[in-house]
Amino acid sequence: MSLMTLLPFIVLIGAMFLMTRSAKKKQQQAAHMRDQMTPGTGVRTIGGMYATVKEIGDDTVTLEVAPGVHAIYAKNAIGAVLEDAEYNRIVHGIGDEAETDTPVVPDDASSLTEAPKADLTKDADEAPKLDLGKKDEAPEADEPKGDEPKDGKSDGEAGAK
């Protein structure tokens, strides 16, 4: 066999070796990160939930997801162990004083649906009238009404008159 025939296989084996090595390195980093957990540490799960570590077992970890609410997760479900300052900033909003340029988002949509406040400085007679596009005159008898088809058929079938 020639070297040109074996070259693709050599490249493929080399690429597989590098990918396996990279995956092992990532697994080792994740295991090291999980070893940094102690009770009271803030974590983020791989699903994006933030919680506080309460107990650590061999393969599981008990997380406090809300005050007084505990859940048991696999250690592999921990995506990141957070520093106290970062956890408090994300979960409790502590330390966000520097970010005053961010807009305030309301908790509900009531401010988006409320009617605008009337201008109390104007007289009630001067209030602008709202035009809803309705005509003041009644429709004539030979004009078709809004939902009625022009050909007089209501079932949608086509046919000759």
Task: Give a verbal description of the structure.
With 161 residues, this protein is of the alpha+beta class. The chain has a domain at 9-98: SH3 type barrels (Roll). It has helices at residues 3-35, 84-92, 110-113, and strands spanning 42-45, 50-56, 60-66, 69-74, 78-82. A hairpin with a 4-residue loop joins strand 1 and strand 2 (50-56). The longest helix is centred in the N-terminal third of the chain and has 33 residues, at 3-35. The N and C termini lie far apart (84 Å).
Give the gist of this structure.
By secondary structure, this protein is an alpha+beta fold. The protein has helices spanning 3-35, 84-92, 110-113; strands at 42-45, 50-56, 60-66, 69-74, 78-82. 29% of the residues lie in helices and 18% in strands.
Structure characteristics:
single chain; 161 residues; alpha+beta; SH3 type barrels; 3 helices; 5 strands
